[in-house]
Amino acid sequence: MALVRYEPWDLITRLQGDINRALGDMSTNDSSGATADWVPAADVEEYVDRFELFLDLPGVVAKDVEITLEKGVLTISGERHMVESKDLLSKSRNERGRGRFHRRFILPDTVNSEAVEARGSDGVLSITIPKQPAAQPRRITVSA
Q: Selecting from 1.50.10.10, 2.60.120.10, 2.60.40.790, 1.10.10.10, what CATH number does the domain 31-82+98-133 have?
């Protein structure tokens, strides 16, 4: 009988890979890891008339966030600064990412890039990306 080593995190890694593949048309493979210190978690929701994008950015000041949209690629980058304290004990535990972050999302051709809006509240950056209205069939009359 062969022994099989149990890796509890393997299931989580596979689940994350499946989610990334499912949203592959919305998000690039995170090649930004080389330039980013951390990657914020993001939720993408699609509605009939828009996409909603939510990024968790607690502790990030709005002036430290840059959002650009160029050639169908929405890029969100910024920085969470480390808070220095003089009376901090030498033993501490830090789990939240600090430093530069970077996320990119490839948008479909159906979005109205001129009407994208962003707002921040309670540590969550919300970006609304409206879709272009679909071309509606219409009747054209012939004039004499």
A: 2.60.40.790
